[in-house]
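User: structure tokens for this one?
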Amino acid sequence: MGTGMPLEEARALARAGMDALRRGDARVARSSFERIVAAGADDASACLALGLACRGLGDLDAALGAVGVLLTWMVAVT
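Assistant:
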């Protein structure tokens, strides 16, 4: 996971985000995953989870944006 934040911080945010998604707390999940992605993470799972959290909040534009970032990374590495 390449990020502009310490690896342990990114992992803690990812765990917090996944726990929030499991509890149905899309707002907390979105905040966690947005921080990871904003730090420059090239983490596909964080982008996908961000999209799920945004969808859970009814923000379909943001959900599609997160998936768009994911697809852009996938194209860049193939």
